[in-house]
Amino acid sequence: MTIPAAIKKTVAQLRASLNEHNYRYYVLDDPSISDAEYDRLFRQLQQLEQEYPQLISSDSPTQRTGASPLSEFATVTHEVQMLSLSNAFDESEVLAFDKRIRDRSQLNAIDYLAEPKLDGVAVSLLYQKGALVRGATRGDGRTGEDITQNLRTIKSVPLRLQGSAYPELLEVRGEVFLSHAGFKRLNDEQRKRNEKLFVNPRNAAAGSLRQLDSKLTAKRPLEVFFYGTGQIRGAVPDGQHSLLKAFKKWGLRVSPLAELVTGARGCMEYYGKLAGRRPRLPYDIDGVVYKVNDRQLQIELGNISRAPRWALAHKFPAQEESTVVNSIEVQVGRTGAVTPVARLRPIFVGGATVSNATLHNRAEIERLDIRVGDTVIVRRAGDVIPEVVSVNLSKRPAGTQRYKFPRKCPVCGSDIVYEGEGIVARCSGGLYCSAQLKQSFKHFVSRRAMDIDGLGDKLIDQLIDRKMVTDPADLYALTAEQLSTVERLAQKSAQNLVKALQRSKATTLPRFLYALGIGQVGETTAQQLAGNFGSLDAIMSASIEELIKVQDIGPVVAESIYTFFRQTHNVEVIRKLLAAGVEWPEEKIEVDLTKRPLAGKTFVLTGTLDAMTRDEAKVKLQSLGAKVTSSVSGKTDYVVVGADAGSKASTAEQLGVDTLDESQFLQLIADN
Ligand code: 5U1
């Protein structure tokens, strides 16, 4: 059937009009028609698309209601790592951040883009030629989950960018969140349907994005603010502030509270202003983010581990409330660490109900002299574990007793031994202790390790208590029949779990290393090990000296890794895991920074060079592995002296530090 040209034209006009109104409503916050009028246009388009389904296109405003449910999320590799932020909790840390940047850049004053730090879920959206082609979660920063279908349902996510000046390929990053009103609406609905209530807006947003059925996500009033980029093919503005302006033009919603400020003082003023507005904002924020505005300088400053050097999250102070201690217990962790925990009368603090708070260690219990029955102040900030700040002695009931730290592990009865000047208590039971064994399994299956979906804490407890598994490799031998004998596990769930176990076998070397639970080896160290050695065999046979050569690995970590691989039971479990089919693609060996020609040498640049700017010289030196600092000291190896050099050249002479004139410097670079 041919479609009349007039119909095609009306459909195109309706779409353009709805997109424009969407843009005005979500991005500009300046609607020009009523909600009723918008609904009328929307329904008109829906009707025409129903009559002429050939006209439906994936970027039509009607196509946000969700697609057919998925059985699982596909994995997405982030071409540009999704970083997290370093945190600052007080002014001195902001001053130190600004000083570090001034020192490294040799600039007197730095411009920063300051914006609210939303308490939501980080996401990445990829636009190709302006069309939304992929949306993903952050995951571990290198790989996330493909949640395109879910992100498409968010009304403030453009399915197509506005205008034409956007880069051909543009990955934008932002935060998905729920407003207070949206959160209340959602929980009211949940209550009506007798469903579980969400603890806070962030958990509700995260849960909504992880729905396999995007039709459910479509019902959640999710919102988004965009704040940065990932991969780009094409040109973008060279300042963070102008980038946000461009985002807005392209239809990407940005925080209306973002501002350009100068220096640490500007940052602190912005922080004070936002802290004052925070109680009246319609959504949760947990601090302020400062970013170096100059994008070229951002590149030069680079990253440390998983956070950029050019950005800082300045957190608002944690929230505190008063409650009563019902009991004090100890918990045994994966490495045997015995941590005391206060069980509390439940209290709502920092956006969640808290009924447990860590007491850290024996010394902390002694310092607080916390007792059962005490009234205490509890603090909670963001994702941080709630803690007891102080005891209100004036409210202590009569007859309370000092808490006595146990001498035996409450789980396995083994002796508790003390490390670190008697502060760290550890159960000596090792994997004989079922608490340690259970925690090791929970770590092994966790999302950032082997990522085995459906193997929850309770199920692990049961599998271990029933002696169905004794080491993680045993998991791979479990059948659906065996699993369905476990309490409350339906046949279908058992089958799905077996499938998830099979799927998890295809992993990566860093994930596998992390999953092994080697003491002191977190995700970053696991990535460093994989990147530097390339294979498991090479890591297993590495000497302590070889391990120490890897960036960020010191003697303690090296010893822990070395010792781990010399325990026959660990090698046996690895052998069993490989025999069960756990595998990964070969790792690319990274260029070892310590092997660059000027590694270990410290330079200071002073005066003007003819051939390049000081910043360019700095980048050159850094790319050859050298460190460039701003002041001359006994630790400086060379001072590069350009024209009109100031006091740094004379300081170098006084301290006997070698100096290089421009031609010697250029020669050094050419030689290396
Ligand atoms: N507002 C804002 N939140 N946030 C989170 N900006 C921002 N930037 C981030 C993150 C993780 O990261 C970039 C600085 C890399």
Number of strand segments: 24
What is the residue-averaged pLDDT? 91
What's the tally of helices? 24
CATH architecture of the largest domain: 2-Layer Sandwich
Q: Looking at CATH, which topology of the largest domain would you report? A: D-amino Acid Aminotransferase, Chain A, domain 1
Poorly predicted runs = none
CATH homology-level superfamily of the largest domain: DNA ligase/mRNA capping enzyme
Question: Residue share in helices?
Answer: 25-40%
Associated small molecules = ligand 5U1
Estimated radius of gyration: 29 Å
Largest sheet: 5 strands, mixed
Major sheet: arrangement of strands: 2-13-10-3-9
Per CATH, the class of the largest domain reads Alpha Beta
Broad shape: globular
Distance between the termini: 70 Å
- Tell me the structural class: alpha+beta
